[in-house]
Amino acid sequence: MAKVKILTDSCSDLPKDLREAHGVDYCRMNTVYQGKETPASLDFEYYTPKELYDVMRNGERVTTTQVPPEEFERVFTKYLEDVFDIVYIGCSLKQSSSVNTGEMVARGLREKYPLREIYCIDSLIACMGEGLLAMRAGDYAASGMSAKEIAEKISAERNTVNQFCTVHSLDMLRKAGRVKASSAFFGNLFGVKPILIADKAGNQTPIKKVKGQRSALAEIVNLMKDAITDPKNATVYIVHADAIEDAKEVEAMVKETIGCETYIGYIGPIIGASIGPGAIALYAFGKEVTFEG
C-alpha cells in the first residue's frame, strides 16, 4: 500500500508544531496589501501577527487569493514524485474555491501519475476546524489507512467539528464575502458581539448576538460545552486574531467549565484578513452540526 500525505491550505491555521506532530503539509494562498502579494505563511515568515493585524487596525484592507494552480502543481508533484498518494483537505467551498482548483490540477496529475491517487475534500469549515480534520487525517495516515479510506472517513466526519466564534463586527466578513450581506446587522449595534458557527453546508453563519465582549467569550465557551460529547478526551483549540489576553481568559473558562485540554494559537493571515483583529474562535470535535443558515 502506498504512503499517504495529508495536505491542507493556508486557511487551516495549523502552526508548525501541530503540522509536524500529525504529518501535515499545506499549500499556500496569498495576502495582498500595500500593493504587495505575499505567501500566506502559517508560520508568519513575512510579517508578525501584530504587524498584519495593525495594518487592519490602521484602516487598510488586506485582501487574499485562493491557492494558485502553480502552488498546487508544485506541492502535489513533490509528494507524487516521492511515491505518496495525496489527500488534500481544503477550506470550505463557501469561503474559497481552492478545492475546485486543487481538483482541476489533480485531474492533470492523475494522467501523469496513473499509479497514484489524489483526493480533494471540501472540509465544510475553515480556520482551525479545517486544521482539526487535517490532523485527524494525518493520524489516520500514520495508522496505515489508504488514501481512499482516509478520504471517506474525513468526508463522513466533517460535520462533527464544532466552531464557536465571536468578532467585533461582521463588516469585514461581509466585505470579504464570507457572510451574507443580510447578516451584517448582527455586528452593527453598539456593544453587540455576534456569535458565528460553521453551519452544515460550510457557511459562516451568525446564530445569536451578545451584549459585551466578556459575555460573548463566556457564551462561546458555554456553547462549546454543550457541543462536546467526551470532555475527558477532548481538546478545545482556541485561536485568536492578535488577542492573546482574551484567548487566555477563554482558556481559563474552558478549563473551569468544560474541564478538557486546550491549545492556543493564532488565526492565520487568510482568515485573519477576513475576520479582523480581536476575533476569538473555539474548535473541537463533538456533536454533529445540523444547523444550516
Provide a descriptive summary of the structure in words.
This protein is α/β, with parallel strands linked by helices and 293 residues long. The protein has ten helices and 13 strands. The chain has helices at residues 16-22, 49-57, 69-81, 98-112, 127-142, 147-157, 171-175, 213-227, 244-257, 269-275, and strands at residues 3-9, 24-27, 30-33, 36-39, 63-65, 84-90, 118-122, 161-166, 192-198, 204-211, 235-240, 261-266, 280-285. A six-stranded mixed beta sheet has the order 10-9-8-13-11-12, with helices on both faces. α1 runs parallel beside α5 and α8 crosses α9 (244-257). The termini are far apart. The model has no long low-confidence stretch (mean pLDDT 93).
Tags for this model:
293 residues, six-stranded mixed β-sheet, 13 strands, alpha/beta, four-stranded parallel β-sheet, 25% strand, globular
Short note summarizing the structure:
38% of the residues lie in helices and 25% in strands. It is an alpha/beta fold and 293 residues long.
